[in-house]
């Protein structure tokens, strides 16, 4: 993964706490806000709204789609730490102001909390999702 060790550890702690108590302590929430800054609360909102869907093809290829607060669907790749939203391109890639956007953080939190929706698609459908993203950007 491409996250700093402290962020990885925090996500592990959140997963452990959630498995044991089905909630995240105030201390962990403060840590989340400290490490991930202003995207922490909106990411938690996305998790609460169950906006994260893991899209999986028979080959095992996986991507995540997150329904943003604007109603637009963004594609996230946790394996390479990338999101198709404008905030990721600007704040993370161009300005290096943030580790990630709220959509990728929502993916990581959904994984930790077992809150992902699941969608099985064919290889062709997965390819179409990937190609549609390229067309949007190009």
Automatic annotation (TrEMBL):
The keyword Nucleus does not apply. Keywords: Metal-binding, Zinc, Zinc-finger. InterPro entries: Znf_SWIM. It holds the Pfam family SWIM. One of its GO terms (biological process) is double-strand break repair via homologous recombination. Residues 74-112 form the SWIM-type domain. One of its GO terms (cellular component) is Shu complex. The keyword ATP-binding does not apply. One of its GO terms (molecular function) is zinc ion binding. This is ZSWM7 protein. It comes from Pycnonotus jocosus (Red-whiskered bulbul). The gene is Zswim7.
């Amino acid at each position: 993964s491409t996250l700093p060790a402290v962020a990885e550890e925090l996500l592990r702690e959140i997963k452990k706490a959630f498995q044991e108590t089905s909630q995240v302590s105030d201390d962990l929430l403060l840590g989340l806000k400290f490490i991930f800054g202003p995207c922490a609360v909106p990411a938690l909102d996305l998790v609460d709204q169950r906006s994260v869907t893991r899209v999986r093809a028979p080959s095992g290829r996986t991507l995540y789609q997150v329904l943003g607060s604007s109603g637009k669907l963004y594609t996230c790749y946790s394996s390479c730490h990338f999101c198709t939203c404008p905030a990721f391109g600007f704040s993370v890639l161009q300005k290096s102001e943030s580790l990630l956007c709220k959509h990728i953080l929502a993916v990581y939190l959904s994984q930790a909390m077992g809150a992902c929706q699941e969608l099985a698609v064919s290889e062709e459908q997965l390819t179409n999702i990937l190609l549609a993203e390229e067309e949007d950007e190009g």
